[in-house]
Amino acid sequence: MGEKFPTPTLLIVIFFILSRLISTKGYSLRDDPESIRLASSDYGHILRENPAAVLYPTSIDDISSLIKFSNNISTPFSIAARGHGHSTMGQAMAPNGVVVDMMSLKNHHPSHASGIIVNTFNLSVNNYYYYADVGGGQLWIDVLHATLEHGLAPVAWTDYLYLTVGGIAWTDYLYLTVGGTLSNADISSSAFRFGPQISNVYEMDVVTGHGDFVTCSPQNNSDLFFGVLGGLGQFGIITRARIALEPAPKRVKWVRMLYNDFSAYARDQERLISVNGRKQSNALDYLEGSLLINQGSPNNWRSSFFPQSTYSRIISLVTKHGIIYSLEVAKYYDQHTETTVDKELELLLKGLSFLPGFVFEKDVAYVEFLNRVKSGEEKLQSQGQWDVPHPWLNLFVPKSRISDFDAGVLKGIVLKRNITTAPVLLYPMNRTKWDDRMSAVVPEEEVFYTVGFLHSSGFDEWEAFEEQNKEILKFCASVGIEVKQYLPYYKTQQGWMNHFGSKWKTFQKRKALFDPKKILSPGQRIFNK
Ligand code: FAD
């Protein structure tokens, strides 16, 4: 009693039956237990929400028809695009709605079998404009392979790439999709110089919450373009993105330095990211900071940089100081720059205040460098420690409060609670590399830090990490450190309003314009409970 009739679930089933009767196109809307099971969990392994059905589209029309169908009934059902479900708190789920498996469109492109087209466009004799048109359900690693065939690579990368294993949707193998990452920001250690991936997109095709197919760019349909970038899937489903490329480097000089003094560490990082012009040959290509804390080995699943022979020295250092700060930088080079790269790197690192004797160097091939997260991940997979809860917390912290954050959060909460053995990232970025018209939210200051607590836990233990995350957020609020969550998760609309701050009105207006029935990405819990 009290339940509206027909329910969204029933309507989805009717849609399914009708679609099978009238369609010869081969897509399918499934509600078998396996499809539902796969679409109801994610990398976080904390929440579980069952959809009523899962759409495996074979064309963009399939997605458009589904969204139009939902719009045209009295009780619309919700629809979530799912890339590879590497969210941690149900963001790609659609409770009682339909999940759209974007990876089904992996091989879809009107004119290309791989779904990825790489182009070079000659602007003038010496000035090339390189890009790739890639489907929203493509994995970044496939984009890399396709572009490397042309000697090119995407300008900005996530730090997580993985070789594809057969392209089967939702296997336990790990990737991030283009649409899933562009819905957040896609930050990486080159963001200080090239911005996040969302700053390196020229154009997109999007199916809006009305079911309309729209091509958008900074010049055309710009409100949709900027809304979708960092838009948490709220305004449309990305089916194609035109991504900026650059000539791929051949090799990488890769250096790590250790610090025990936080202010020296922060000062050095900020100095290094101040040289950040896109074309500036004396700028670093990569800068990442992380913590060594409470761990048996100085390596973790994100990095196997340190050779075994250095373990005992580094572990003694960590034991002595509690926290050691690691600064990791890289400079790419090729046959044209191999004679100058060492000198450039030396000049850049001159005068840094790392601990004497704690600088480590490597020289590796570019692809090996990009795939560096892979080996740690394989190890965790083989030990059954990958498909476990991931109570992550990712924050952007304004530069002016990063020392307070170190004292109050890292030394105050994290060291005292003594449960963090996971990678903790901490490095700065430049706000000028982010376009304020995009939906993504960052602190107001010119320089801000990303801090990521990438916890894994046992199935009975994740609450302890959640408690720590809550304490961190509470502490920041209590002392006025205005952090912004990255990959945000809020339970109330007030939480979201605070998160977006001055951007909230625009975000709301865009929702009313592009998805007025609030159909898309309900798992973000911004407009749906
Ligand atoms: P999903 O989890 O499937 O979806 C995420 C959100 O995007 C959902 O709301 C979904 O509805 C929406 N969405 C998915 N596809 C589309 C589409 N085509 N159009 C519109 N909306 C869509 N992030 C970084 O910035 N940098 C990193 O280096 C980084 N490393 C990571 C490493 C690991 C191991 C993991 C698990 C995550 C990492 N992340 C990183 C976070 C990651 O970028 C986000 O979680 C991203 O959303 C995951 O991509 P996905 O394809 O799995 O998206």
UniProtKB/TrEMBL annotation:
Pfam families recorded: Cytokin-bind, FAD_binding_4
Source superkingdom: Eukaryota
UniProt signal peptide: 1-26
GO process annotations (BP): cytokinin metabolic process
This protein's record includes keyword Nucleotide-binding: no
Reaction catalysis annotation: N(6)-dimethylallyladenine + A + H2O = 3-methyl-2-butenal + adenine + AH2
Keywords attached to this entry: FAD, Flavoprotein, Oxidoreductase, Signal
Positions of the FAD-binding PCMH-type domain: 47-248
GO terms, molecular function: cytokinin dehydrogenase activity; FAD binding
Cofactor: FAD
EC annotation from Swiss-Prot or TrEMBL: 1.5.99.12
Family: Belongs to the oxygen-dependent FAD-linked oxidoreductase family.
PANTHER family: CYTOKININ DEHYDROGENASE 3, GULONOLACTONE OXIDASE
Protein name in the entry: cytokinin dehydrogenase
Species whose genome carries this gene: Prunus avium (Cherry)
Gene: LOC110749240
